[in-house]
Amino acid sequence: MASSSLGIAESRQRRIAHVLLFVTPALFTANMLLARATADFIPPVALAELRWTGVVLVLLPFCGRDLWRARAALRRDWARVALLGLLGMGICGAGVYHGAATTTATNIGLIYAVSPVIILLLSRAMFGERLSRRQGLGAALALAGVLVIVLRGDAAALLALSFSTGDLMILGAAISWALYTVLLKRWPDPLGVQARLAAIALAGAILLLPLLGWELASRGAPHFDLRTVATVLTLVLVPGVGAYATYGYITEHLGPSRTGLLLYLSPVYTAVLAWLLLGEAFALYHWLGAALVLPGLFFATYKPKTT
Question: Cα(25)–Cα(247) distance, rounded to whole angstroms?
Answer without folding.
Answer: 9
